[in-house]
C-alpha cells in the first residue's frame, strides 16, 4: 500500500491536538521523510531523522512526540492494510 508521508489538510474544524500533530508532521516528519512512502521507510531512516533532530537542537520531548506520531501513522497503516473493519472512523 503506497501512502506518502506528506499530505495536505485543512485547519478548519481541527482541534488543538490535531493542529499540534500536524505541526509536528509539517515541521519534523516531512522535512526528513517527506519524499519516502511509508512502506519504504526503514529503521535507519528513523535513526537518521532522530540524529538530525538532536543535532538541530530539537528538544527531547519533541523528539519523543515526533516518534509517537510516527508510531500512530504506522499503526494506522498496518490496520488499514489488514482490512477495512479494523480502521476506526471519526464520528461527529
Structure description:
With 92 residues, the protein is an all-alpha fold. It has one domain. The protein contains 3 helices and no strands. The chain has helices spanning 16-33, 43-55, 60-82.
Name some characteristics of this structure.
92 residues, 3 helices, 59% helix, mainly alpha, 0% strand
List the helices and strands and how they pair.
Layout: H1 16-33, H2 43-55, H3 60-82
Concise overview:
With 92 residues, this protein is mainly alpha-helical.
Q: What is the total domain count?
A: 1
* Helix-residue proportion: 55-70%
| Binned strand content | under 5%
- Give me the Rg, rounded: 14 Å
Poorly predicted runs of 5 or more residues:
6-12
Kindly report how far apart the N and C termini lie: 28 Å
String of helices and strands:
HHH
Query: What shape does the CA trace take?
Result: globular
Mean pLDDT across the residues is: 77
Structural class: mainly alpha
How many helices? The count is: 3
The largest sheet, given as strand count, sense and whether it forms a barrel, is: none
Number of strands: 0
Amino acid at each position: 500500500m503506497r501512502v506518502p508521508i506528506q499530505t495536505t489538510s485543512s485547519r478548519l474544524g481541527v482541534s488543538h491536538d490535531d493542529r499540534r500533530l500536524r505541526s509536528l508532521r509539517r515541521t519534523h516528519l516531512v522535512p526528513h521523510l517527506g519524499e519516502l512512502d511509508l512502506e519504504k521507510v526503514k529503521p535507519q531512516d528513523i535513526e537518521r531523522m532522530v540524529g538530525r533532530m538532536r543535532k538541530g537542537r530539537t528538544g527531547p520531548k519533541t523528539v519523543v512526540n515526533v516518534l509517537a506520531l510516527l508510531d500512530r501513522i504506522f499503526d494506522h497503516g498496518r490496520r488499514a492494510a489488514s482490512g477495512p473493519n479494523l480502521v476506526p472512523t471519526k464520528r461527529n
